[in-house]
Design goal:
six-stranded antiparallel sheet; single chain; 4 helices; OB fold (Dihydrolipoamide Acetyltransferase, E2P); alpha+beta
Length: about 120
């Protein structure tokens, strides 16, 4: 299983990539896409939506099941990746190259609630 060291993770199996501009890209981990199987539909949060840490903010559907996307931190959605929305199978092919939405965090201190790669591996057991 691929767990890149440079990313942060949630216990709901999302990865977070903080950028230099202070905004964060968010996507589904390799582990999550393996559990879900072939992803066929994504409903991201809308641009300008205010999301709350741990609260559902979108939906992922696969041939096996549906699953909520949970916000990694409190923030405002500033972009969605239309290329991945139009072709959700890209997540199965390259989960860490396929961000779903980008947000501007409202509280940088919440970054401490995210897991680094070591802690995410431990969480997965």
């Amino acid at each position: 299983m691929n767990i890149p060291e440079h990313l942060l993770y949630t216990t709901e199996h999302l990865w977070v990539a903080p950028a230099e501009d202070g905004n964060w890209h968010v996507g589904i981990t390799d582990h999550a896409q393996e559990l879900l199987g072939d992803i066929v539909y994504l409903q991201p949060p809308a641009i300008d939506d205010r999301v709350s840490r741990g609260a559902p903010c979108g939906l992922v559907e696969s041939v096996k099941t549906g699953s909520d996307l949970h916000a990694p931190v409190d923030g405002v959605v500033i972009a969605v990746n239309e290329a991945v929305i139009d072709a959700p199978e890209r997540i199965n092919e390259a989960p860490y190259d396929s961000w779903i939405f980008q947000l501007r965090p409202l509280d940088e201190g919440q970054r401490d609630s995210l897991l680094d790669a070591v802690r995410y591996r431990e969480f997965l057991g």
